[in-house]
Amino acid sequence: MTAQASVRQGALIDWSVAASTGVRLVRGGPVVERSEADRVVTELRELTVGAERHVRELTGLGADLPLLTAEVVDRPGWIRSAAAGLDELTGEAMSTVEGPRGALAPVLASSAGVQTGVVLAFFGSRVLGQYDPFGGSEHGGTLLLVAPNVVAAQRAMRVPGRDFRMWVCLHECTHRLQFTAVPWLRDYFAGEVGRLLTGFAESDGLLTVLSRLPEDLRRIKLDGSLGLAELMQSPGQREVFDRVLALSTLLEGHADYVMDAVGPEVVPSVATIRRRFTSRRKGGGPLDRLLRVLLGVDAKVRQYALGSTFTREVVRAVGMDGFNAVWTSPETLPSRAEIREPKAWLRRVHR
């Protein structure tokens, strides 16, 4: 898949520049013999079908949907696909927002594209897989698995190759089912992201942000989950941000729960993989850790833990069918506060 060849009118980011910058900067993958590379690619494609069967049996979602394989890509392939999907998402989300116009607009969009490309290059060497509900040839969604990153992570953790590949497929197939089995979720997500981006585009400016800085810094000391993004938000923006964050935490935590709950019958070394993978998420040198903080990666790691705990406690209380009430409508999604206090969601939804 190639990045968009032209910039949308009034776009804030030139996604073709983002893609080309990311591809140019991303590090090369691990050295792999051609025979091993071919085997890994073939196995990843095949495992997605079996993985999704297991996810459907456990969650009860998507029983009548077709079983599809994943697209296996390298690092540049993921970057190009991610840029195209983000172009589609932001284009849908901000279709009613007046972007920058005039002679400087392309320059600003290109500059933002370069900065975004740097971020894509950082994640391009780390992302194991991704379901993009806005990707694919018809923008109907695509499941990607990044073969060199899967191999690099498996080697670094010294865990069985097939077990780890199945474990990764379970996580990403759960994400695919979340969006394909819940028909309203894609549009709801795009709408909330649109409201969030609209708030940024119409923000009060730097002086207002700086005037709130002392109060925001006190909030960060009290709540370690706050990050740099929240420093840039008005109270109204934070309401939208809270909904987007709660949904993201639910999706990630639910997938994390599922990939472990399927159990050792499917992934015999699941306990070892989970232990070593959790340790790996916290690792990295000083520069890597700084980038993780700036890009919100550490906050993302906390999302997995919070969302997984929410899922586990709700399933324990009302079973998987009771948990699946979260997918009924936007009104039954947990709030950010309910993610931290599952009993509050249970009282509201299950009374």
Write structural notes for this entry.
Helix content is 67%, strand content 3%. It has 351 residues and is mainly alpha-helical.
Which SSEs are present, and which pair or pack?
Elements: H1 15-25, H2 34-59, E1 71-73, H3 75-93, H4 105-124, E2 129-132, E3 142-146, H5 147-157, H6 161-181, H7 185-201, H8 206-222, H9 228-231, H10 235-261, H11 270-281, H12 286-295, H13 297-323, H14 336-340, H15 342-350
Parallel strand pairs: 1-3
Antiparallel strand pairs: 2-3
Helix pairs in contact: 1-3, 1-4, 2-6, 3-4, 3-7, 5-6, 6-10, 7-10, 10-13, 13-15
Q: What count of helical segments does DSSP give?
A: 15
The helix-strand sequence is HHEHHEEHHHHHHHHHHH
Largest sheet, if any?
Answer: 3 strands, mixed
What would the principal axes of the Cα set say about the shape? globular
The chain-level mean pLDDT equals 83
Work out the strand percent.
under 5%
Largest sheet strand order: 1-3-2
What portion of residues is helical? Answer: 55-70%
**Ends distance:** 47 Å
Number of strands: 3
**Rg from Cα:** 20 Å
Low-confidence stretches: 1-5, 209-213
Give a brief outline of the structure.
It is built from 15 helices and 3 strands. With 351 residues, the chain is mainly alpha-helical.
